[in-house]
Amino acid sequence: MNHRDPRRQSPHRPAGRCLAGVVARLLAGVAVLLVAACGGEDEDRRIELRWGLWGTPEAVQNQRRFARDFMRLHPNVRVEIEPVAGDVTVAFSMRLAGGDAPDVLYAGNWFLFEFADKGTLLPLDDLIARDGIDMGQFFDSALSGIQWDGATYALPEAINVEMLFYNQDIFDRYGVPYPEPGWTWDDYLEKARRLTQDTDGDGRTDIWGCYVWTWIPGFLPFMLQNESNMFDDDFRRFTMDDPRAIEALQFIQDLIFRYRVAPGRQALQSQLSIDMFASGRIAMGSFGYWGVRELQGAPFRWDVAELPRRRTTGNVVHVHSFAINRETEHPEEAWELIKYLTLDEPAREVVYLIPAQKRIAAEMIRAGNEGMPANAEAILATATDPNTVSPPFGPRFGEYSSVLGLELDGVWLGKVSVEEAVRKAKPQIELILSE
Amino acid sequence: MRRGSHKLSRRLFLLLLYAVLTAGAVVMVAPFLWMVSTSLKAPHETFMLPPIWIPEDFRFENYAEVFDRLPFFRFLLNTATIAGLVTFGVLLSCSLTAFALSRLRFRGRDLVFYILLATMIIPAPVTLVPIFAIMRRLEWTNTFLPLVVPAFFGGAFPVFLLRQFFMRIPRDLDEAAVMDGCSAFGIYWRVILPLGKPALATIGLISFMGAWNDFFGPLIYLYSIKKQTLTLGLATFQGYYATDWHLLMAATVIVTLPILLAFLFSQRFFVEGITMTGIKG
Question: What was the ipTM of the complex prediction?
Answer without folding.
Answer: 0.70
